[in-house]
Amino acid sequence: MKAAVMAACLVSILSASEYTVVVSKKSSFSALTVSQIRDVFLQKRRNIGDEKAIPVNVLGHEEVRSLFETKVLGMDRNRLNAYWVKQHFQGVTPPLTQPSFESVKAFVENVDGAIGYLPVYMVDGKVRGVYEF
């Protein structure tokens, strides 16, 4: 019995999300669907409801960014790069970037409508998680 409980706890820990899509605590977004997030980060949607949505990616964390692109955007890096080349010729640019998780968090806190992703442990009273991955 003890072994079964420990195994269940281990599976629970291993399957827990490590990252979350975040918005400012001032945002009206309480939860977002993966489809809404995908559309915002692919610049197919500029607003969610009446609120402007400004996506921001993190630079220098390729493992996390690849995880986000695969799990949330549903694309690998090659497909995403091809998507942005096509969008470039239609006048659409990729999301803004920030050099660190700390700067993504500060951007999301201070820019109305900003949406980014952070490690779950960075979520506090200044930002709110709306989708874990």
Our estimate of the beta-strand percent is 15-25%
CATH class: Alpha Beta
Distance between the ends: 31 Å
Overall strand count: 7
Identify the overall geometry.
Answer: globular
The largest pleated sheet is described as: 5 strands, mixed
| Mean residue pLDDT | 89
Relevant CATH superfamily: Periplasmic binding protein-like II
Order of the strands making up the biggest sheet: 5-4-6-1-7
- Poorly predicted runs are 2-15
Overview of this protein structure:
The chain has 133 residues and is an alpha/beta fold. It has one domain: 3-Layer(aba) Sandwich (D-Maltodextrin-Binding Protein, domain 2). Helix content is 42%, strand content 23%. The protein contains five helices and seven strands, in the order H-E-H-E-E-E-H-H-E-H-E-E. The chain has helices at 2-15, 34-41, 62-73, 77-88, 101-110; strands at residues 19-24, 47-48, 51-52, 54-58, 96-98, 114-119, 127-132. The strands form two sheets. It has a five-stranded mixed sheet, sandwiched between helices. The longest helix has 14 residues, at 2-15. The protein is globular. Mean pLDDT is 89; it is low at 2-15.
